[in-house]
């Protein structure tokens, strides 16, 4: 090979890096919503790089903020930065609902699905639309507080602004990595090395995992760099990770696209093997136990090796618990159709994040449940935007043994559809976070589902009278152990009194951002006296929480593990010491923006109570 070509490649890469550096170091005034950088056409085949901020937030799994506000919501990711390069806790940023591992250690925590691939660790996501479809060359994520949560960046082939939706929607991973611990909460611009793809995109998805963070991560803006014409030569040859090469080869070998996955599900033609080796000598149950450690895709691949293993891999006992969430981008009607014969005994099913943009139809979902729903005990459908009233009706008819139903962020389900849930009298867990459930339907559910133990109504903005809801809970739901009323706008001391009197088994209660509750009415002291089993209590952003409330908690709720009193002005260091001395199991105490608790007090409390994570947020 002539030495000229490597030299040209090196020069091209050098010039490209110079352009990138120039783009990064431009002043904010130069970085408009869309900008083109002209380059030397003789040196590079790509002569224009477009730089654009997100135009619109299309979808997300959760956010800290309210549905009727911009503070701490995902919608803050649209447009130019509001905060960056400043660091700290700012309301103008995008914040997800959870952080750390605290939510995994409370009474409402759900058991994880086994067989989840180790490469899938995403907990939340947000999807962003940009003005111009481009071939991505870089993605900049402006993180302003506790960075390090982003674990995956994906690009979609569908143009959200096109009048003609494509026949097939493709998602390509631009970058992925396991969660990492970042030293310090300071702002940063995160620019991972992304993979080159063969289609233009203006739809980018960020997936996050906040389990290693000490507090909520805050994102300010996302910048997409790209070119209009498909690059002829990859300019990142020297920066390719060998692990990425292995993954690509693995995808080519096994076929990880939608069609290939469906072919694996439906494979029936097998090679003739003269013998199955030593597997013929193993007990059937032992082989089943060995295969139970494989992921779904590994089972599909193994089924192609011989008839014996095909029989084992298609045994319905291998699909008692099935999570398809890690494969959300590849699951469609055909996938469910191919899985039907294997899932006749399924008890746990996770279809969260799947089926959007037409991948799963109402008829496809209904056909699957009619065959596989009779034994279902747990059904996870978080962010399933294909769901409608027909789907809920099918669930209630086909799943008579259902005990757990998660409809978190299914915001496309019409309000009247939730009436069907009342038919499932065996329900023990119901998650309606960020849904449009209305009061009449919820009252019906509470009246007929008296076995409920865990109920999430966080950010349900269509409920008009939470006092009435709390009163019915107290009368009908005596077994309730956890209740999420995050950001309910109109519950008062009357509703709290009814709730505390009737639901005395409560171990977890989230009253964060409930502005109508006032300590002066005695509602918090009443809670402390009536609910001695409390392990988690969130009174986030209630400015009226005072020393009396904290002292009542110390005296009556000695099993308390997590307490959030962010934003109160009325709590003193002395009452916190009493609480920490009394509640030996306390592991989380959030005193962010508590005016009487300064950093000196936090340091002192940390020194005296080292087993408690005491959080004090700040703004610069």
Automatic annotation (TrEMBL):
GO terms for cellular component: SCF ubiquitin ligase complex. GO terms for biological process: SCF-dependent proteasomal ubiquitin-dependent protein catabolic process. It comes from the Eukaryota. Keywords: Leucine-rich repeat, Ubl conjugation pathway. InterPro entries: F-box-like_dom_sf, F-box_dom, FBXL15_LRR, Leu-rich_rpt_Cys-con_subtyp, LRR_dom_sf. Residues 276-331 form the F-box domain. SMART domains: FBOX, LRR_CC. It holds the Pfam family F-box-like. The keyword Methyltransferase does not apply. This is FBXL4 protein. The lineage of its organism: Eukaryota, Metazoa, Chordata, Craniata, Vertebrata. The gene is Fbxl4.
